[in-house]
Structures are given as structure tokens and as C-alpha cells.
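Action item from last meeting closed. Structure (260 res):
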């Protein structure tokens, strides 16, 4: 095999990994510019002799020491759009991702902007070998970050629902309407936090009747000003903030401003 060292050093008798073949080989000989050498470093080109490797089994690929190269199925990547591309780049689109000597189809989910950069979740149709931190470019360019497994990926969309306080049962218990539809299974939302337009917080306790109303337990007793607003017929809004996980039935609640 002939190639150029792009990171680190390769030495005589070192064990190398050929990911595309899923094989490990020991370096039996190194030659650089027709001279036998003991090692080669970054930027140097060399011929590598290993045993029992067919010349037809690989073409262009990457090799490395154990652990240097990782096979990934999904990853987080930071990307920048290429200004000359005039098309639309959006979540859910499939593009060709090129990294190293691999070009594979991937589905992109753009997560959030970071100044002029964007975090992107890439799901590859076929696993490929990557060198963490190296660039990739097509409709956008950037750097591959951490490889992810299916258990680590938690994609969700944020939703919110709003209703009105209908009555006060006690200083720490209220009933609200319009927060849920009549056919909603309110038990799925029990114990999730809610926020009043007055700034006070509480949690969903249970359904109240069968018309989509819910009983809310307040974290602290309602203030005198809030009680006067409700008693005077003023509108006090109740909002529940949700995270709905993609591909799962799981729903979580959170309060704005918290670390969620």
C-alpha cells in the first residue's frame, strides 16, 4: 500500500487497522522515496508492506492505528453554508456527504444556529469511516464532531399549549380550561409543570370533569394580586411547555429559563 501520513506517525512492526476490510495487519516494511525507513510522520509519503493483503481488495481508503478511525452511523457536525449554492437547505433533505475517501447519502437535521455556524445531525444510510475533526463539504462545509449511536440521539420539537384559569379551589389549587382538548388523555400530562401569566408555577394534577379541564397544583400559594385578578374576572393564562420526541411517544415538560 502507498499513502501519505495525515496525522501521527507509523512505525515498523506497528499494528494498523484497515476499517474497510475490518482487518488488523502488522507493518512489515516501510519505504519512502525508495529508501527503507523505520518510521514516517505527518506529510511524508510511504509504501507500506503488510502480509496476506490482496491488491484488489482495496482501492482508496484510510488506515490507522487501533482507535484512530471510527465507524459511525450518525454524528453531530458544525457546518457553514457555501454562499455560491443558490438552492434551499432544510431539515429532512438527503445529500451526499464526503469525508475522507467515502461519499455516502445522509439525511440532515439542522438543530440550531451558532452565530454563522449551524449544528447539524447527520444520519448516514451506510456507515462510513471518519477522522474526527476533519472537514466535509458539499452544499455546506464543516467539521464532524462526536459519533452518535441510536440511544444517544434524542431529537425533539418544542410545543406549548395555553388555557385560562377558570376558578380557584384554594390558594394552591386552581382549575383551568382550554389547556387541553376534550378528547385529550390528560393522564399523559400529569405532573408536568405549567406557568401562569403572572409568573407563578405549578403542575398538572389530573383531569377535572370530562370537558378537557384540568386541576393545577401550585408550587407556592397564589399571591393576593393574582387572586384579585381572577376574582375580578381578569384573564390569567396557564401555559404548558412541552418537548415531543421524534419517533417516540415520550413527552416531557419544562419551564422557560430552566436548563432544558
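Sequence:
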Amino acid at each position: 500500500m502507498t499513502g501519505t501520513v495525515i496525522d501521527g506517525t507509523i512505525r515498523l512492526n506497528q499494528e494498523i487497522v484497515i476499517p474497510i476490510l475490518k482487518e488488523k495487519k502488522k507493518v512489515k516494511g516501510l519505504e519512502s522515496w525508495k529508501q527503507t525507513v523505520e518510521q514516517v510522520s505527518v506529510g511524508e509519503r510511504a509504501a507500506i508492506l503488510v502480509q496476506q493483503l490482496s491488491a484488489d481488495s482495496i482501492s482508496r481508503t484510510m488506515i490507522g492505528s487501533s482507535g484512530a478511525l471510527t465507524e459511525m452511523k450518525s454524528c453531530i457536525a458544525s457546518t457553514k453554508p457555501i454562499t455560491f449554492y443558490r438552492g434551499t437547505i432544510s431539515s429532512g433533505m438527503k445529500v451526499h456527504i464526503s469525508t475522507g475517501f467515502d461519499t455516502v447519502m445522509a439525511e440532515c437535521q439542522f438543530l440550531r444556529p451558532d452565530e454563522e455556524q449551524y449544528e447539524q445531525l447527520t444520519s448516514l444510510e451506510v456507515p462510513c469511516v471518519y477522522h474526527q475533526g476533519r472537514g466535509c463539504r458539499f452544499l455546506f462545509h464543516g467539521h464532524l464532531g462526536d459519533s452518535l449511536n441510536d440511544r444517544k440521539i434524542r431529537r425533539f420539537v418544542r410545543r406549548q399549549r395555553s388555557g385560562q384559569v377558570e376558578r380557584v379551589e384554594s390558594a394552591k389549587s386552581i382549575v383551568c380550561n382550554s389547556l387541553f382538548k376534550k378528547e385529550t388523555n390528560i393522564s399523559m400530562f400529569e405532573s408536568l409543570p405549567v406557568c401562569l401569566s403572572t409568573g407563578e408555577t405549578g403542575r398538572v394534577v389530573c383531569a377535572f370533569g370530562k370537558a378537557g379541564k384540568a386541576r393545577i397544583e401550585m408550587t407556592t400559594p397564589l399571591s393576593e394580586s393574582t387572586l384579585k385578578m381572577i376574582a375580578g374576572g381578569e384573564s390569567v393564562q396557564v401555559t404548558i411547555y412541552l418537548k415531543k420526541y421524534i419517533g417516540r411517544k415520550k413527552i416531557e415538560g419544562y419551564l422557560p429559563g430552566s436548563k432544558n
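Note appended to the action item: The longest strand covers residues 156-170.
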